[in-house]
Amino acid sequence: MSTDIRSDIEGMKAEVQRIGFIFAMRAEGQGLIDRLGLTEQGRLDPDLPACWVSGRVEGGSSGRDLEVAIVFAGEDPYHGCDRIGTLPATMAAYLLCRRFRPDLLVNAGTCGGFQREGASIGAVYVGGGDFLFHDRRIPLPEFEAFGIGRIPAIVDEPMRMALGAESGIISTGDSFAPTAEEQSFFERERVTCKEMEAASLASLSRDLGVHFLAVKAVTDLVDHPEPEASAFARNLNRVSQILVERLINLLEWMKVRE
Ligand code: SAH
What we know:
Elements: H1 3-8, H2 12-15, E1 18-23, H3 26-36, E2 39-43, E3 51-57, E4 66-72, H4 86-100, E5 104-113, E6 124-127, E7 130-133, H5 143-148, E8 149-152, H6 157-163, E9 166-168, E10 170-172, H7 180-188, E11 193-195, H8 198-208, E12 211-221, H9 228-255
Parallel strand pairs: 1-4, 1-5, 5-12, 6-9, 7-10, 10-11
Antiparallel strand pairs: 2-3, 3-4, 5-11, 6-12, 7-8
């Protein structure tokens, strides 16, 4: 990155010109593709359904251009649904990082929220504290801590404010339905957002030395009588629109030199 850019922008923003987004589901990310007019780039690997789109966000006279790419793990050809969860997300993000070389990887998506930590439907969070895994129970020395993860979240405050998001603890697991043991974990660890990708992407980003941000919008409440699955289905489209608006705000702020 050239020094002239560093000189008039501060914080993480100064180091970020190429932004890679990963969404688990098309329904979560299609709105951003449409709004930015990005171009489909096809598969990242001929044998995997992971696919990406890219383009430029023009900075105009007072700003700087941003290069943006979005990757999806893609549709599972055997089951006809999006390949959600940690493994497909990590593989897709890895392929994107090698191909596109982002300065910042953003895992944007939806999550289950916890009312007891202040969450409500449509609220948007950035991952704060540590990223946790709630379904990697390995009661063996060393592996226990490895299982839980505790991958430090590095939250850039101006970036969080540009998103209009609160900071909350995010916990990741490969199941949508929580067990009783996981429920006590969420309470003990004061988890605000429960989802299925962020911690594994935080771990990948740490390995690759890429800045990482998780932005999650609440589609359903875990500590609420309505089953998560029905709230999720009812709110997915509306909440994904809220999420896209916030991501547009982030990009608008990112491109301004100040
Ligand atoms: N039943 C849904 C599948 C969505 S799974 C369908 O058929 O369309 C949930 C996806 O949204 C995951 O990618 C996860 O990151 C996120 N998510 C939203 N609410 C969640 C919750 N309560 N628990 C776990 N993940 C959740």
